[in-house]
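Suppose you are handed only these lines of text.
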Amino acid sequence: MPLWLAARRDSMSLAASLVVCFLFVVTNVQAEWVYQRQAIMGTDINLSLWHEDREKGEQAASAVMAEMHRIDKLLSPYKPTSELSILNRTAVLEPTPVSAELYALIDKSLFYSRVSEGAFDISFASLGQHYNYREQKKPRAEQLQALLPSIDYRQIKIDPASRSVFFANEYLQIDLGGIAKGYAVDQSIHILQDLGVQHATVSAGGDSRVLGDKRGKPWSVGIKNPRGKDEGHEAVALVLPMINGAISTSGDYERFFIDADTGERVHHIINPRTGVSVGGVASVSVLGPDGFDTDPLSTTVFVMGPIRGLALIEALPGFECIIIDRRGKVSYSSGLAAPAH
Ligand code: AMP
Ligand code: MG
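From them, the structure of the protein bound to adenosine monophosphate can be written out as follows.
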């Protein structure tokens, strides 16, 4: 082969590989999965989204995190300046006008209180504020007796005309921990949609929502094995394929301690009738169109237990649920086929 031809061949393959490299770099810069993770609202926020323009994708992810911070500032019971904390101080004295957003959250919570006959009750906080899971503290017996009557959603009076809230019980306090994260993931998805994102998943602790699919295949959403961490089992009990929808999981393993005196698991889901943690169930996952419903429903079904909880889900079109009890028995609502053994 003449020398000039060999040289030309080499330069051609060099040119070809340059083109390949260039294309690779260009595609990587222009379209990519963007991931972000932050600790907000006392939980882990995880986000992944696809955007044709990486920089715009990063901006969209930051907009979601900013929204999470905004909601945390509005609804945190730990921030004395949050609208929720202010309401907890004033609504025992007089009807207090609130933002449309806070009103909608309280209104929705009261709806689930009514349909569950009090299993979901944001006034659990009247007593619930005396639990501290990190410090392994629970209310004293006298405190429990004294504050149990203040867990009563019927004493939360709301007026749509003045958009105000009044607590007709002087010790009543509310906490939106059972609905706020689902609402926050919905808000995040709406922001992403407005910014033209078509494929995304956002989760705030146990509340997740997926937008579109994972570019040609469904998203895989895992349901944790409630005892995975403690007992060395598989970390994930089930994996569900999902396109467009929300899933919320309430678990007795999220925030808990083992009572040194009784050996009981003291966890963050409170039975409003007794003022103590709900026994029997280990985890409840509810699937549906949005987190504003699946989040309160997962907490509600947890409190109601498998029989009444499943009956409630069966009565609500568009929702499904999976319940894992403390012995590991799994129950499904009728719209979900049990996996083959
Ligand atoms: P989730 O994380 O959705 O399972 O909800 C648990 C959170 O809901 C707790 O951390 C509390 O803030 C709140 N919560 C606990 N018990 C109840 C209840 N019976 N009704 C409404 N909210 C509750
Ligand atoms: Mg929930």
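What can we learn from it? The pocket of magnesium ion (ligand 2) is lined by residues 178, 248, 250, 295, 298-299 (CB under 6 Å). The chain is about 40% helix and 25% strand.
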